[in-house]
């Protein structure tokens, strides 16, 4: 038994550890999932930013897309003869000239000393022709200068097409090359329209792509590293704070003086992910609590069952002993009488009394066992009929008042007049009364008080049995109706009993559609309250009154009374 007890503890501990381990693992994987969701949402945003920078870069030279495949020999020829480009190239220039990104389009032929001497260069004009002008900005020469330096090192290996693009932060320069003999024809330089770029194009496109309506929870700024200034923002109201920047993306190749800086604010993904994490944790917590509760419940009920089994076997041993003892006494006394050895009147009487009282004890024991059987037999042994509880109580007490008096009990009886009838089995009520009154007497010490009250209220008849005895502690109150349960205190230990009376009472009350409750305070006493639902008015009228005592219970109670006295 002991070995199984410790095994049970080990299993319980293993169960709890398993549950805690499982919970831990689940919380961890939920957290990892939450982090992954965030990470993948951020990765996704980073991809969008990279796509965006590519798109802007493309926007700067998209107007010149066809330039790489023009017939360079014809272009060269045409330019030498007329000072103009072929119509094929002119068409591209026409479109580019209309693009607000570029301020003007200039052409500096290779070998020209235009920028050193400040001699005139070609400018594409509104009548869609190149015209010579000496009025050109510094930025044109800067752009051309950078392009010329860089193309020198590239040209030796260059063999692909007739166009290479360079950039000098404020302009874009396209170098026209003849790939066959690797010679530079000239430089097409377009200074940017800085006003348009900074005040219109960049802020607008940033807001369109990453503005609060498109991407709540994300702020994007564009920094120009040439002067280290923020030149555009996805949300005009967002305040730039460098410590909030979580991610910086460079613009590809020749726009490397621009960077996109990104701050992830309280994004919806984070909120959604947090909400789902919390939801999952709550469900997990509840499931774990349920599981833990079930485990503890199973453990407790196993303990209870074990205790019940122990009490049952104890009960069997006691019953065997209690059945055997009176039988042995009766056997011995009977033998003596049968032998005719006892002649003395006094002794004869004493032997007779012995046999009688032991027989009563035996009968009591058998009655108790029968009551248990009856209360377990469910409805089959119950014969409910309209009954006046007051009458049954009165009749029961009349038959037992001598017994109370001899025990020194003061009986305080209140029975309301005109009590309505209830549909119960009279024998059950007698058994209930006998068990509760028996207990009130058994578990009273100095103050011998027995209060019995029968009243009617709220469509119920209420029977209260009160004593001023030892009372029952709060912890045991919920167990006293359990079969074989006995409170562990000194008076109970001294009192004979098997913990069956109250379980019989509860079973019988419930079989008769009633309910039982108990109020008790240790040292002050206990009150058992039983209620039965009253019969409807028509049922009250049509029923016979059944107050008469049944012979079986009469004789049983008489014997009990005589035995105790
Ligand atoms: P038994 O009296 O045979 O032990 P019961 O089922 O009648 O069994 O009662 C169960 C336990 O409840 C008793 O052992 C006792 O400890 C407690 N008990 C019952 N009635 C009273 C009472 N009126 N006052 C104090 N304790 C009581």
Automatic annotation (TrEMBL):
GO terms for cellular component: plasma membrane. It catalyses: ATP + protein L-histidine = ADP + protein N-phospho-L-histidine. SMART domains: HATPase_c (SM00387), HisKA (SM00388). GO terms for biological process: cellular response to phosphate starvation. Residues 541-552 have a biased composition (Polar residues). This is histidine kinase. Coiled coil: none annotated. Residues 318-536 form the Histidine kinase domain. InterPro entries: BphY/WalK/GraS-like (IPR050351), HATPase_C_sf (IPR036890), HATPase_dom (IPR003594), His_kinase_dom (IPR005467), HisK_dim/P_dom (IPR003661), HisK_dim/P_sf (IPR036097), Sig_transdc_His_kin-like_C (IPR004358). Pfam families: HATPase_c, HisKA. SUPFAM superfamilies: ATPase domain of HSP90 chaperone/DNA topoisomerase II/histidine kinase, Homodimeric domain of signal transducing histidine kinase. Residues 553-565 have a biased composition (Basic and acidic residues). Its EC number is 2.7.13.3. Keywords: Kinase, Membrane, Phosphoprotein, Transferase, Transmembrane, Transmembrane helix, Two-component regulatory system. Residues 538-565 are annotated as: Disordered. It is an enzyme of class 2 (transferase). One of its GO terms (molecular function) is phosphorelay sensor kinase activity. The chain crosses the membrane at residues 281-302. PROSITE patterns: HIS_KIN (PS50109).
């Amino acid at each position: 038994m002991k070995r199984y007890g410790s095994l049970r503890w080990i299993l319980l501990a293993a169960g709890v550890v398993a549950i805690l381990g499982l919970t831990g693992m689940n919380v961890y994987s939920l957290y990892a999932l939450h982090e992954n969701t965030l990470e993948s949402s951020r990765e996704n945003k980073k991809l969008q930013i990279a796509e965006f920078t590519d798109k802007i870069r493309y926007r700067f030279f998209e107007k010149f897309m066809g330039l790489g495949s023009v017939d360079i020999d014809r272009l060269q020829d045409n330019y030498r003869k007329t000072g103009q480009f072929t119509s094929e190239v002119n068409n591209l220039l026409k479109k580019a000239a209309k693009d607000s990104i570029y301020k003007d389009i200039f052409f500096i032929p290779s070998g020209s000393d235009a920028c050193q001497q400040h001699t005139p260069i070609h400018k594409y004009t509104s009548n869609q022709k190149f015209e010579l002008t000496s009025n050109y900005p510094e930025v044109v020469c800067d752009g051309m200068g950078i392009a010329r330096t860089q193309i020198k090192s590239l040209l030796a290996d260059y063999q692909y097409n007739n166009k290479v693009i360079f950039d000098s932060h404020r302009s874009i320069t396209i170098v026209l090359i003849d790939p066959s003999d690797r010679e530079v024809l000239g430089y097409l330089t377009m200074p940017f329209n800085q006003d348009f770029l900074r005040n219109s194009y960049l802020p607008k496109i940033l807001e369109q792509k990453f503005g609060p309506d498109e991407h709540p929870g994300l702020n994007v700024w564009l920094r120009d590293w040439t002067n280290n200034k923020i030149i555009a923002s996805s949300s005009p109201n967002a305040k730039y704070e460098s410590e909030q920047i979580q991610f910086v993306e460079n613009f590809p190749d020749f726009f490397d003086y621009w960077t996109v800086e990104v701050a992830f604010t309280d994004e919806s993904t984070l909120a959604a992910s947090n909400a789902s994490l919390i939801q999952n944790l709550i469900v997990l917590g509840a499931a774990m609590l349920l599981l833990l509760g079930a485990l503890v419940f199973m453990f407790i009920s196993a303990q209870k069952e074990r205790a019940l089994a122990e009490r049952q076997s104890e009960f069997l041993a006691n019953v065997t002993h209690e059945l055997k003892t009176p039988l042995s006494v009766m056997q011995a006394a009977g033998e003596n009488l049968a032998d005719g050895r006892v002649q003395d009147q006094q002794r004869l009487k004493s032997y007779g009394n012995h046999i009688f009282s032991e027989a009563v004890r035996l009968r009591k024991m058998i009655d108790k066992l029968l009551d248990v059987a009856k209360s377990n037999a469910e409805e089959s042994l119950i014969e409910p009929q309209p009954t006046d509880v007051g009458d049954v109580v009165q009749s029961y007490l009349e038959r037992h008042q001598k017994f109370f008096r001899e025990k020194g009990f003061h009986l305080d009886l209140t029975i309301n007049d005109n009590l309505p009838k209830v549909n119960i089995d009279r024998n059950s009520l007698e058994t209930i009364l006998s068990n509760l009154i028996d207990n009130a007497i058994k578990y009273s010490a100095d103050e011998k008080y027995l209060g019995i009250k029968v009243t009617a209220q709220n469509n119920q008849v209420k029977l209260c049995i009160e004593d001023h005895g030892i009372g029952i502690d709060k912890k045991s109150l919920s167990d006293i109706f359990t079969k074989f349960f006995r409170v562990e205190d000194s008076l109970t230990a001294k009192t004979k009993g098997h913990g069956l009376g109250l379980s019989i009472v509860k079973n019988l009350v419930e079989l008769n559609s009633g309910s039982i409750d108990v109020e008790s305070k240790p040292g002050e006493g206990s009150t058992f309250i039983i209620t039965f639902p009253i019969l409807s008015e028509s049922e009250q009228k049509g029923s016979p009154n059944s107050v008469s005592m049944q012979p079986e219970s009469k004789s049983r109670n008489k014997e009990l009374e005589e035995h105790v006295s």
